[in-house]
Amino acid sequence: STRVAFMAQLSSDTTVEADMPVNLDEILLNIGGAYDNGYFTCQDDAVYVLSTSVHLTQEATSLALYKNGEPNRNIISARNTGDTSNDSGTSSTIRVIQCQVGDVYNLQQPTTRSFMAVNTAWSGFRLFSPLEEDPVAFHAYMFTSQTYTDGSTVIFESTSLNLGGYYLNGTGFFVCPDSLYYMFAWSVRAMNEEWA
Predict the structure, then answer these.
(1) What is the value of pTM for the model shown?
(2) Most exposed residue of 83, 114, 150, 178, measured as fewest CB within 10 angstroms of its CB?
């Protein structure tokens, strides 16, 4: 099967102009050669995992994942804590995507922003082909802000990917179809000053 994995980071603090791709220029890993100058190209019809982390020197930004030149979805909304002694903020996220051979992804933001080299990175790897027997993968997200009490289940009400249908929309539950190892990753943003 096709083997694809990449990881890139900024080599130095960088200011990126509005509506321009974020080019993480220091390539640490590029198996399969799918990453080039800020762009990731899907090598086959498969499910991929993309992970992003940014460290900003300004107050806020919304970083979007672009697919074939069009915004696919805002994947990061980062802001500092309001601490004037540390005017920066870090945010990260992970996405599971199903793409077709030749699809091109990149990161972009709508306003001019300065990114710090430390903690600013983009990585991804091929998970499997959906043509394989009994594929299982999901990516769920929230459309709106939610308020939860202690001990309550966090519900990501919508899915952009749900191969096998084992994530139960509207419940927050994933049901394992068999006795195997699974990887789970999530990201949340707290809207008040308390930890989440």
Answers:
(1) 0.73
(2) 150
